[in-house]
C-alpha cells in the first residue's frame, strides 16, 4: 500500500513539472535568455604603457607596451587604463563587443595624457567608451587619424585629435561596402582641430560623418565639441563626396566650430540631420552650407554664427536647403583664446550657444 502511494506521488510530481514547463496550450516551451539572469562578465582591468612589454600580463606592474595588443585583449566588462606618453602605432582593429551593463572602457590613466601618433581605427565597437585617448599624425601620414566603422552604443569623448592630413580628423561610417551597420553613437567634449589641406577643394574636415547606407537604425549625437581650423573643408561634414547615400538621424548640438570653409556642411542624400545651439564663427562661405542636398528633414534651429558670408546657404545643382527651423541668429563673440581650453565668448548672448552653454532647460 505504501509503495502504491509512493508511485502515485511520483507521478503527480512529474505531472506538475511537465505543466510548469508547458505554455498555455500545454506544449513544452523552449527556454529563453530571459528565463534566468545572465551572470555579469567578470570585470578585469588592464594597463598599457610605452615602456611596457606585450609579452606581459597587462597588469599595473607589468603593463602591455602597445595599444593594439591591449585592445585585442578586451572583452565585455573590461577596462583598459592607458598610461601617458606616445604610442607610435597605426591601429585598425575589429574589437570584441561589450554588453549592456558591461561596457568596455578605454580611458587615460588619471592625470596622464596618452597620444597615439599614427592612427586609431575601431571596427564595429558595441558598448565601448573611448575616453581621453588623443590622436595625431605621424610624419606625412595621409590617413584619417581616428575612425569608427559600424558598431552601436559607443562613445568617444574627452580626446584631442589634431593635424590630420586626410579627409578627416574623425571619420564615422558603416564601412566601404555598407557592411558594418551603425546604431547609436555619441561624440562629445572632444577638441578636433587643424586638418591640413590635402585633397581637392573643400575635402578635408574635422569630423566627417559619411555614408550610412547599411545602417537603417543609426542614431547619432555630436555634442559639446570644439572644432577649429579646417580651411579646406567643414568642421562637421554630413554626407559623402559623391551623389550616393548619406548619413541620417544625427543630432549635432552645443558645438563650437571656428575657421572652416563651411563650418557645417550637409550634402547628397543626408536626411534627418538636426543642428541646434551650435556656435559657428568664421567661415569662408557659410556657417551652415547645403551642397547638392537631396535628402529631406534636415533642420537648423537656434544656432548662432558670425564672420561668414551667410549663416544658412545652399549651392550646387538642384540643392535642397537645410530648413531654417527658427531662432538662428548672427552675433559677435570675442573669444578668450583659440585653444582646446579656450573659446569662451565675451559676449553674454554668445554664451547661450556652443561648447560651454547651459542646457536648454537652464537658459533664462
**SSE run:** HEHEEEEEEEEEEEEEEEEEEEEEEEEEEE
Low-pLDDT windows of residues: 1-36
Question: For the CA atoms, what is the radius of gyration?
Answer: 25 Å
* Major beta sheet summary: 17 strands, parallel
Terminal-residue CA separation:
86 Å
Overall 3D geometry?
A: globular
Name some characteristics of this structure:
364 residues, 2 helices, 17-stranded parallel beta sheet, eleven-stranded parallel beta sheet, globular, mainly beta, 7% helix, disordered N terminus
Can you give a write-up of this model?
There is one protein chain. Helix content is 7%, strand content 37%. It has helices at residues 2-20, 67-73, and strands at residues 45-48, 79-82, 85-87, 90-94, 104-108, 114-117, 119-123, 128-131, 134-136, 146-149, 154-157, 160-162, 168-173, 184-188, 191-193, 205-209, 219-223, 226-238, 248-253, 256-267, 271-276, 279-283, 286-291, 299-301, 304-306, 310-315, 323-324, 329-330. The protein has a 17-stranded parallel sheet that branches. An 11-stranded parallel sheet has the order 1-2-5-8-11-14-17-19-21-24-27, covered by helices on one side. β1 (45-48), α2 (67-73) and β2 (79-82) form a beta-alpha-beta unit. The chain is globular and about 55 Å long.
Amino acid at each position: 500500500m505504501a509503495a502504491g502511494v509512493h508511485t502515485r506521488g511520483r507521478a503527480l510530481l512529474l505531472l506538475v513539472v511537465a505543466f510548469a514547463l508547458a505554455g498555455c496550450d500545454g506544449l513544452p516551451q523552449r527556454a529563453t535568455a530571459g528565463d534566468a539572469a545572465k551572470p555579469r562578465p567578470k570585470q578585469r582591468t588592464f594597463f598599457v604603457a610605452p615602456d611596457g612589454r606585450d609579452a606581459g600580463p597587462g597588469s599595473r606592474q607589468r603593463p602591455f607596451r602597445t595599444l593594439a595588443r591591449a585592445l585585442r585583449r578586451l572583452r565585455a566588462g573590461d577596462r583598459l587604463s592607458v598610461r601617458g606618453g606616445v604610442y607610435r602605432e597605426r591601429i585598425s582593429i575589429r574589437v570584441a563587443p561589450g554588453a549592456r551593463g558591461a561596457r568596455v572602457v578605454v580611458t587615460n590613466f588619471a592625470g596622464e595624457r596618452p597620444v597615439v601618433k599614427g592612427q586609431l581605427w575601431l571596427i564595429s565597437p558595441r558598448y565601448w567608451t573611448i575616453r581621453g585617448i588623443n590622436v595625431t599624425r605621424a610624419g606625412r601620414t595621409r590617413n584619417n587619424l581616428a575612425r569608427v566603422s559600424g558598431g552601436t552604443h559607443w562613445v568617444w569623448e574627452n580626446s584631442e585629435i589634431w593635424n590630420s592630413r586626410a579627409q578627416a580628423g574623425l571619420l564615422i561610417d558603416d564601412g566601404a561596402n555598407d557592411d558594418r551597420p551603425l546604431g547609436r553613437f555619441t561624440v562629445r567634449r572632444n577638441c578636433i582641430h587643424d586638418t591640413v589641406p590635402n585633397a581637392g577643394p573643400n575635402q578635408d574636415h574635422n569630423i566627417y560623418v559619411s555614408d550610412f547606407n547599411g545602417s537603417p537604425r543609426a542614431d547619432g549625437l555630436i555634442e559639446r565639441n570644439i572644432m577649429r581650423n579646417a580651411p579646406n573643408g567643414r568642421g562637421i561634414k554630413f554626407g559623402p563626396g559623391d551623389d550616393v547615400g548619406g548619413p541620417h538621424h544625427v543630432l549635432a548640438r552645443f558645438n563650437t566650430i571656428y575657421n572652416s570653409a563651411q563650418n557645417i556642411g550637409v550634402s547628397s542624400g543626408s536626411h534627418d540631420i538636426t543642428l541646434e545651439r551650435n556656435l559657428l564663427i568664421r567661415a569662408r562661405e557659410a556657417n551652415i552650407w547645403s551642397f547638392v542636398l537631396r535628402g529631406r528633414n534636415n533642420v537648423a534651429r537656434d544656432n548662432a554664427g558670425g564672420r561668414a558670408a551667410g549663416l544658412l546657404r545652399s549651392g550646387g545643382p538642384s540643392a535642397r536647403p537645410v530648413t531654417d527651423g527658427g531662432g538662428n541668429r548672427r552675433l559677435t563673440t570675442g573669444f578668450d583664446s583659440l585653444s582646446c581650453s579656450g573659446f569662451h565668448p565675451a559676449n553674454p548672448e554668445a554664451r547661450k550657444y556652443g561648447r560651454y552653454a547651459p542646457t536648454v532647460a537652464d537658459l533664462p
